[in-house]
Specification:
alpha+beta; 5-stranded antiparallel beta sheet
Length: about 190
């Protein structure tokens, strides 16, 4: 699939279940390959991923609800729980700090570069899940759930949680995107 075609299909699907036609192993192998291939400034390899599947995925979303102490509707977290899995995206702050020391001229840039490479990773995985015929949505319950996630999945303390991508079988379509006047955000200079 071409990049433009994948982006045109990109939607946030929330009506998902765990009845997918792709094996957990295939998803894991594909995400590992993408993690290896997505670039990172100075080749620092700051991106980290925890793939949560099966019962642990369900427990994750129960824990998200508990962590918010009722401030998030159970129906909302259950929507994510009903899906098949969650990709947790992190960057490794220890790696970023090491790069700051090693290349002090660029010290202030390494954290933004870590965010940028993580964004590329998220979009690459998003597009690939689309190619697999899966639905997905990107959530941001961090930093409220950070401590619980690290405990649940034995994640290093220096990992900084950035996003949670839920994926599963699409149960219903979403509305089409409204066209915008892209010239408000785009400029050509010659």
């Amino acid at each position: 699939m071409k990049t433009i075609d994948a982006l045109k299909k990109r939607r946030s699907y929330r009506d998902l279940d765990d009845n997918i036609n792709v094996s957990d192993e295939k998803i894991a192998d594909t995400i590992k390959e993408i993690l290896e291939l997505v670039p990172d400034a100075f080749n620092m390899k700051s991106q980290r991923v925890v793939l949560v599947q099966g019962d642990k995925h369900k427990k994750l979303w129960d824990s998200v609800y508990e962590e918010f102490g009722g401030q998030v509707a159970k129906e909302k977290t259950d929507v994510f729980k009903n899906a098949s899995g969650t990709v947790l995206f992190f960057y490794d702050s220890e790696t970023v700090e090491k790069m700051k020391k090693e290349f002090s001229l660029y010290e202030k840039q390494f954290e933004p570069w870590a965010y940028q490479s993580n964004g590329m990773l998220q979009l690459s995985i998003w597009d690939t899940l689309c190619e697999m015929g899966l639905g997905y949505n990107l959530q941001h319950y961090n930093p409220v759930i950070d401590k619980r996630v690290k405990e649940m999945f034995d994640v290093d303390d220096n990992y900084v949680l950035l996003a949670e991508m839920v994926y599963g079988n699409i149960l219903s379509d979403v509305d089409k995107k409204e066209k915008e006047d892209i010239n408000k955000r785009f400029k050509i200079s010659k």
